[in-house]
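@channel sequence for tomorrow's demo:
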Amino acid sequence: MGSAFSALDLFGYWEYRDILRDFYNWRKESMSLYSYRMMGDKLGLDSSQLFRILNKDQHLSPARIPDVVRLLGLKPKAAEFFDLLLRYNRARGEKEKKSLFEQILAKKGVSPKKLEEAQLKLFQQWHLVPIRCLIGAGLYTGNVENLGKMLTPPITAAEAQDAVNFLLNLGLVEKRAGGTYGISENHLTTGSAINSMVVRAYHRETFLHAAQALDLTPPQERHMSTLTLAADQDAIQDVNEMLRECRRQIQKRIEESQSPDRVVQVAFTIFPVAKV
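structure tokens (generated this afternoon):
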């Protein structure tokens, strides 16, 4: 039963529970009577355990991996990848998580450029990341004045030149034959520094720009909406999962863009404004 599903690109996942959830949804589409109980029986779990796992409230036991392999019809490489994802998502220590993260990237065929301390300066000025994206999309031809004008709000030609030089010096963009520019690595990770003050400061700048976009960007070119709701913890956990899934779907859709002509920021946020 799992053969058709196992043919999908499991190596695009970062969360093993997303694989299990997508398998359940796939089976449910082909057989409307398919249930948590039926899937749980195959995995040695009761329906409530499976529900909590798919809802990311509980982890799958490593002892159940052989059952997953049989159910999903995973070949050896996919089975090894699933095992890595399980251990990565269950890992608590930073050292263990970092090691598993690098192993996952190797399985994915991705060689990320590790952001060293100096490279974290990338996040200190809001326009550096968008400029790198513009270069990666092939939208920078060497004219720094035009590059500066592409940004919202625009920056000067001198600021744009400084940004390009900065990215070149860090090795985050490169000058190629014929005078063209490109990004040296498609994937970047900040590793354990992701929680550093400098990255939090960048997030703060991002949300400030979102507020400025209300005045700087025409309504037809932006979408902004907010909700203020009373909710319980279970509902919040569900919303967090919805946001993660939405983020994954947005990334997948953007990767399908053939001729990008702009750089956008999509901001997700949920936080309490009142609490009992």
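heads up for whoever presents: Residues 10 and 78 are 7 Å apart (CA to CA).
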